[in-house]
Amino acid sequence: MVMRSRSVNAAAACLGIGVLLIGVAGCGGGGGGNSADQNTTARGPITYVQGKDNNNVVRPTIDKWNAEHPNEKVTFKEQSDQADAQHDDLVQHFQAKDPNYDVVDVDVVWTAEFAAKGWLQPLTGQFALDTSKLLPATVKTGTYNNTLFAAPQSSDGGMLYYRKDLVPNPPKTWDEMMSDCSIAKQNNMDCYAGQYAKYEGLTVNAAEAINTAGGVIVKSDGRTPDVDTDAAKKGLSLLADAFKNGNIPQQAITYQEEQGRQSFEAGKLLFLRNWPYVYSLATTDGSSVVKDKFGIAPLPGLTGPGASSLGGHNAAISAYSAHKATAFDFIKYLESEDRQTFNATQGSLAPVIASLYDDQALVQKLPYLPTLKTSILNAVPRPVTPFYPAVTKAVEDNAYAAIKGDKSVDQALKDMQAAITAAGS
Amino acid sequence: MATTTANIPAPGEVPHRRRPFDWASTRSYVGIALIVIFCLAPFYWMVVTSFKADANLYDLSRNPFWFSQVDGSGRPYHKDIIIPASYSEGPIRWTIGTGAHTTRFDSEPNPVPIAQVGDQPIYSPVDGTLTQVTVPEGQVAQPNTVVGVIDVTSPSLTHYRYLASTPFWRWMRVSLITGLMVVLITLIFSVPAAYGLARLEFAGNRGIGIAIFLTYLIPSTILFIPFSQFVGALKLDNSIWSLILSYPTFTIPFCTWLLMGFFRSVPKEIEERALLDGATRLQMLRLVVIPVVLPGILTAAIFAFTLSFQEYVYALTFISSSLNRTLPVGITVDMVRGDVYFWGPLMAAAVVGSIPVVIVYALSLDYFISGMTTGAVK
Amino acid sequence: MSVTSGVDTDEGKVEKAPEQSPQAPRRNSPLRKGEGRRALYLIVPTLVLLAVVIGYPVVRAIIMSFQKDPGLDKSTGLFVSGGNAGFSNYTHWLLQRCGEASCPPGTLGSQFWDSVTTTFFFTAVTVVVEVLLGMWMAIVMNRAFKGRGLLRASVLVPWAIPTAVTAKLWYFIFAYDGIANHLFGTHILWTGDQWASRFAVIIADVWKTTPFIALLILAGLQVIPADVYEAARVDGANSWQRFTRVTLPLVRPALMVAVLFRVLDVLRIYDLPAILTGGGGGTGHATTTLSILVVDQIRQGFNSAAALSTLTFLLIFLVAFIFVRFLGAHVVQTQQTQQRQQKGTV
């Protein structure tokens, strides 16, 4: 009896101590004051966080900076290649208020979410940026609630890649492209593909289809859904009908960017909707059989050029960074004409400085620049909302079902509307 | 029943009747053949694929289960040597001649160029043999043109060599170290706990045993959110310690439960006799109990190692830098560009990555089976 | 022969005679002295560790599940803490309520019951197939023959490959232009079709785990002495009757443990479907299990995710309870009951 109560007491004491310890540890981190006001003039070494550097531009850029700033060296933290993993990694570090993430590369659609959570340093006051030379559309992607939170770093727009040996004049409208599909059949090729797997790329393609037809996903405030309209129905039906009659091949429902590119480079696809990065790869890849046989054109619309979704990346300063002054200088460095030109020539990354698109030397090296400029000028941004993960899921799920034919386009748009509304609550 | 260790019947102990035509035996052999095919076919395909040159690998018209040197039209697999578009034109100087072997440049730590255009190096894109030179020595080579042809041989070690240029061996090290540390921590906690729970009588004995079993049931998704917050708060993100400290949360409950069974199979009489014979408690444990329970401890160690080697969710989330990943996460996340996987190196990585666990099992399979026999069933 | 240790059988329980205390004659044995305290020293470190490392996070997760996810303050545009949610996170999942309305397709809430169905479907099919196949493999492996070593080595292989790597291997096999379609001459979108994707996951899981089940059952088979079979054969039983009347009952304890663990594992499965199909297929979530749904939800609001994972845990607990209580898989046993069985069945 005595022994048992003593042993119980001992056990209880041990457990109590254990819980206390963890309680103390868990309480740490509750610092005082607004993080945005801290460390604003501090200088020192910083870390730049970006996803996989497939174009090999980041390291040379950082090396150049480090040579000129020996006391404020930049370390490159390379994340994985997948956008979702990059997003989750940033979220984790921001939630932990990590001071080691100084400058982060954010996809254009994450800016609102991160800004609304207070994780990004507003680029105002001493961090004000001169955005007059930049493409206005790109500046908009870094803006939330009328404040600039992230500096545009690279831009992107969708383009149509086509086989100029089979189709000398690229189609200007969607109907023209669909009628060119007979050429594809004759040559035993698939006709047209974009990105239709259930991921962010599908939102991009669905948004393009809807916007091209004159519809919108959200109203101009960026949040209120307005997708259950006739125009949107027209747009989404283009994709759904093409999938049904085989103009978009069955396996395209699993395509992300790379698989479409491979199919095009292997000569199995007549038209491809993809980003500019494909241009240099299709020209230089050893396995590409379409090297001198392809051309680029703006996306076909209903009566003229179609709307493309604006892609690209912005650079932002973490609100928890310990050396924000250095971080700000680094951002300005990334946006400088010198670096933007380097990114364009070395990495085929579309610059954000408007004048570079008319630079003759650059256009010679990158023949797709004029087409890309048209694309970006006609680009419509995806919804700017802090609830972007839920909104994009609403679009993805319903567009996927509509394209596959599991749901009528009407029903898909109704559900999309309801789901986006639910996402904001 | 006094037997404390299971006896695996040695071949021959089970009575085997010799009949003129042994249907049972034939049936067995057919069954065995089917089992071997079922277990090994995908693995065999994995191994063959890992040795195939890329050209052979992606040619779907060829036999998937063996190597082929020629494509569908009978032409040997080959790769063109192309001057990069960003190069400027210039006279070409070859450093090798036709018939020479070439190695793929990104599988070498210090690649040697096979030609020079001006002072710009040209590297071999593939393992193979140089068979054709279309722009001979001294002539001017233009960017974006073919200057030679390399015939590709299949099988080749390309993908295995390529692994050296990825963080693959770092991943292997991370996984092995994590596994061993987790085994150590697990055994330190679960062996005494299992002994106490199985052997010693006290109130709440059974309740605690069940409670420990219950903790194994907790899905990692419920622990995932608080854990990632802890890992951030303790600044352990991207560190191997985040894994070493979180894996025991599922290995300890499982191994404690497993070891309880083993300890219970040691009859108390043995221990009592040793104590009566004058042995100290420690001697009794060391000389009598542990040797008997050793298969069980080994089984628990094997399970703990396997569980932590193969764990995915925590390793994916807590470690974000490509250099510090564990093996399964590294293979599935980093050998990819967008949604296109590097299948050759991925298969090679899979083959090499499975070897540690195979070795561990192969060496200890006898212990393992005797352990399972004693522990789970008696 | 006693069938004890990890698993208790109903037969053992019947033997319990309430008034017999096997401990009585051993009250003075040297092991009794200070047993309670010694037990404490051995067990408490593990208990404390588990309480701290598992108990506390679980409690924290449950507390989180009663908080609302941060909401948007419309005036500042910033997220603010959501405050107390009561049970609204749970009704979000169980009753599919998104705010006032029912959750429309395209939200994660609408996928809850689909995920439950998918998870149970996977569990039922994979465990049944694995047990049947594993039983057959164990019986074959139990016979003595040449080349046993080769068989045992080959059986290890599927299990030795890390799960994530297995998933990628089968992803490659099931690619649209991959070897599966090539061998069967089909054009099935294995990772995109509603049922094909589910069967792809099942096939991959069966390939990986059947050897493990076979080994567990083999361990159980190997303790059945040959004379029991002899006696049955002498009594005129054919091989089917020997299987159902001798083998099955005697291997049942090992089998029940194996089944219980597999069931609990598949209910929590994450890596295989996530890597093989991404949770997709059919309308986009044909292979989304509960764990995949939790991870997806974390991206949108982790208080809600905590509620979902709590629900998952309760579900698993319920299934385990049913198994242990009603289906006779007794997983924890004390020395006492084991000794009673030993005495009873000698």
At the third CATH level, what is the topology name of the largest domain in chain C? MetI-like fold
Biggest β-sheet description of chain C: 2 strands, antiparallel
Question: Helical content of chain B, roughly?
Answer: 55-70%
The rounded distance between the terminal residues' Cα atoms of chain B is 10 Å
Greatest interface and its participating residue counts: B-C, 111 and 114 residues
Q: What is the average per-residue confidence, as pLDDT of chain C, rounded to a whole number?
A: 81
Would you give an account of this structure?
The complex is a heterotrimer of chains A (425), B (378) and C (346). Chain A is α/β, with parallel strands linked by helices. Chain A folds into two domains: 38-156 and 311-379, Periplasmic binding protein-like II (D-Maltodextrin-Binding Protein, domain 2, 3-Layer(aba) Sandwich), CATH 3.40.190.10; 159-309 and 387-423, D-Maltodextrin-Binding Protein, domain 2 (3-Layer(aba) Sandwich). Chain A has helices at residues 2-27, 58-68, 83-95, 111-116, 136-141, 174-179, 181-186, 200-212, 230-244, 257-265, 277-284, 324-334, 337-347, 360-365, 369-377, 388-404, 409-423, and strands at 46-50, 74-78, 103-107, 143-144, 147-148, 151-156, 159-163, 190-193, 269-274, 294-297, 308-309, 311-317, 379-380. Chain A has a five-stranded mixed β-sheet with strand order 2-1-3-12-6. A four-stranded mixed β-sheet of chain A has the order 8-9-7-10. Chain A has a two-stranded antiparallel sheet with strand order 4-5. In chain A, a hairpin with a 2-residue loop joins strand 4 and strand 5 (147-148). In chain A, helix 8 (200-212) packs across helix 16, helix 9 crosses helix 16 and helix 16 (388-404) packs antiparallel against helix 17 (409-423). The longest helix of chain A is centred in the N-terminal third of the chain and has 26 residues, at 2-27. Chain B is an alpha+beta fold. Chain B is built from 13 helices and ten strands. Chain B has helices at residues 23-51, 54-57, 158-163, 168-199, 205-217, 220-233, 240-246, 248-264, 268-276, 281-310, 313-318, 327-334, 343-376, and strands spanning 78-82, 90-94, 101-102, 115-117, 120-122, 128-133, 140-141, 146-152, 336-337, 340-341. In chain B, strand 9 (336-337) and strand 10 form a beta hairpin. In chain C, helix 5 (148-160) crosses helix 8 (194-221). Chain C contains 14 helices and four strands. Chain C has helices spanning 10-14, 35-65, 88-94, 112-142, 148-160, 163-173, 179-184, 194-221, 226-234, 239-267, 271-276, 290-298, 302-326, 335-345, and strands at 71-73, 78-80, 97-98, 101-102. Chain C is 64% helix and 3% strand. In chain C, strand 1 and strand 2 form a beta hairpin. Chains A and C meet through helix 1, helix 3, helix 16 and helix 17 of A and helix 2 of C.
